[in-house]
Every structure is written in structure tokens, then in C-alpha cells.
């Protein structure tokens, strides 16, 4: 498997990928670099299968199991998040680890990122008012299921 600057997506410099892996405490192997690149360039919240299909174009011998293990190591290191799909049958991955919520469209199976500081404040205030003595939330992600409304 060859991962040269020529094979990387133009918007991703090799040092950027390497630095992200190293900041997460992971060695920057060629497989990890390739899988991270694929995760970052694929639209939306890709499945491991989608990452694998993209990656095998550059590394035909890369197994789906290796992609799953690598993505799981990314999750454990805080480099990505695992997101349940709207239908619940497949794991999806989100390279955006900032606080945000997800809207699940049951018609398209699309997962849409949603940020709203006012909603975040409401949720924090709600838990602060409840005074849960045996639980202290440090982060949260709201998952809302619905349908996109098409406008005429």
C-alpha cells in the first residue's frame, strides 16, 4: 500500500493526517492514514463498509475487518465518534468530535449534524436543576428522528 502526497485528497496534507493520529496517541501507519483520509473525505457519516470501499481503491488487500478495528481504535482514542444509524442496523462514524446533535431522516436514512447553543444551554440547565446526585454529565448528543420536509 502506497500513501504518497499524490494519493491523498488535495485538501488533506499528509502532515495534517499524521498530526491528528499522533495527537490521539496513535502511530501513523499507512493503513491508519488511509482510513482516516477516507473517513474525512466521505460525505456525511460513513459506515465502515463505505470507508472500506473507498480505501480498497488505493489498497486492494485491505480487509473490512482491519477497517472496523481501525475505526474502533479511532473511537477509543477520541479521534472519531460512533453514531447509531437511523435504522439502527449499521454503525456510522463521525469525524466531527465537537459537541453537536444528529437529526435522522427516516425517508433518506441521512444523518444531519445540528448545532444549537440555545438547545445545549437548555439541556445543561435542565440537568443542573434536576440535581442528579449520582450522575454528572460531561457531554451529550441529542438524536432526533423525523423526516425532511420538501419545500415547493
UniProtKB/TrEMBL annotation:
Q: Which Pfam families match?
A: FUR (PF01475)
Which lineage ranks, top first, belong to the organism behind this chain?
Bacteria, Pseudomonadati, Bacteroidota, Cytophagia, Cytophagales
The record's keywords, sorted A to Z, are: DNA-binding, Repressor, Transcription, Transcription regulation, Zinc
Transmembrane segment boundaries: none
What the record says about family reads: Belongs to the Fur family.
- Tell me the protein's name: Fur family transcriptional regulator
Amino acid at each position: 500500500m502506497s500513501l504518497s502526497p499524490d494519493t491523498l485528497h488535495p485538501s488533506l496534507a499528509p502532515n495534517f493526517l499524521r498530526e491528528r493520529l499522533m495527537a490521539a496517541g496513535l502511530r501513523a501507519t499507512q493503513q491508519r492514514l488511509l482510513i482516516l483520509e477516507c473517513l474525512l473525505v466521505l460525505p456525511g457519516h460513513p459506515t465502515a463498509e463505505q470507508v472500506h470501499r473507498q480505501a480498497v481503491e488505493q489498497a486492494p488487500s485491505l480487509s473490512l475487518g482491519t477497517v472496523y478495528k481501525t475505526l474502533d481504535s479511532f473511537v477509543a482514542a477520541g479521534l472519531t465518534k460512533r453514531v447509531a444509524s437511523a435504522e439502527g442496523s449499521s454503525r456510522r462514524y463521525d469525524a466531527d468530535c465537537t459537541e453537536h446533535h444528529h437529526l435522522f431522516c427516516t425517508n433518506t436514512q441521512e444523518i444531519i449534524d445540528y448545532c444549537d447553543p440555545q438547545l445545549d444551554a437548555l439541556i445543561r440547565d435542565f440537568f443542573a436543576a434536576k440535581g442528579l446526585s449520582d450522575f454528572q454529565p460531561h457531554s451529550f448528543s441529542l438524536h432526533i428522528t423525523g423526516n425532511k420536509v420538501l419545500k415547493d
